[in-house]
Amino acid sequence: xxxxxxxxxxxxxxxxxxxxxxxxxxxxxxxxxxxxxxxxxxxxxxxxxxxxxxxxxxxxxxxxxxxxxxxxxxxxxxxxxxxxxxxxxxxxxxxxxxxxxxxxxxxxxxxxxxxxxxxxxxxxxxxxxxxxxxxxxxxxxxxxxxxxxxxxxxxxxxxxxxxxxxxxxxxxxxxxxxxxxxxxxxxxxxxxxxxxxxxxxxxxxxxxxxxxxxxxxxxxxxxxxxxxxxxxxxxxxxxxxxxxxxxxxxxxxxxxxxxxxxxxxxxxxxxxxxxxxxxxxxxxxxxxxxxxxxxxxxxxxxxxxxxxxxxxxxxxxxxxxxxxxxxxxxxxxxxxxxxxx
Length: 341
Fold this sequence. Notes:
Layout: H1 6-18, E1 24-27, E2 42-47, H2 54-59, E3 65-71, E4 80-85, E5 92-94, H3 98-105, E6 111-116, H4 122-127, E7 131-135, H5 140-144, E8 149-150, E9 156-157, E10 160-165, H6 168-178, E11 189-193, H7 199-202, E12 208-212, H8 221-233, E13 237-242, H9 253-256, H10 260-267, E14 283-288, E15 295-300, H11 304-316, H12 326-329
Parallel strand pairs: 2-3, 2-6, 11-12, 11-13
Antiparallel strand pairs: 1-3, 4-5, 6-10, 7-10, 7-14, 8-9, 13-15, 14-15
């Protein structure tokens, strides 16, 4: 959270203008004087895609979220960005909401708005240990009017909107004004991946839990989608641990379509269910773990009640904040001396 002081706003805008990771397309400096002193102001970055409507961004001002930057995105919506680097690894940044995730990590923005086709919000968030959320119910009418797209592996889909942030509290605030959520009172049914969670871990959460093998999650999207669709019908929330994203390989179908060697490199990108969440019209949130570029991925069908169950579970989930993120967000070397520290 950022108090609405000129000095705090100037710091964020100065880093954005300095653009140390080349992740910013345009900066909209905030004029803090127009806000009341007792209010809290949040800075938002928006992926440079026409699908994100100005009306939607304007609606977030109801909870104090204001446009700050237009963010770079990977060329042609690729799942890896060959122009931007992951600040942690120096490898190609996961796409396609690549710049949006980087700008939240750097502290330029408190939250980012991106578009997701086959993991384009969730995967970049996971790649830098941030929270990612997507749902086709966000700005639904506008997004349904957008032209459908075809993935590199031949699957037709509509993109959905999503958020990237380090603050679950802030995510709750923006979802309160942007997503229809029905209060869920009954006990939820939850499916855990048996390869990621033990029966004891599953038993920690209130609900009717079951442990099932999701070993198919790294299969082709064509094979994966019908299996996941049936599982989502049978539960309120499905939970999988995914990653580490793009640390050993590159989860990119453009590269992976060539031969067995490149297919193996793609699988080593460790992108599983997150590749098809949007294509199934589902809703999901990824939560950082203690492991680098690894996230707990919670998925549900896009009904207000099931989304409510998912968010209630996410709120109780252990929170992890990397102690090393400050290496990127404490950019004092970029400030003029008069800013101080």
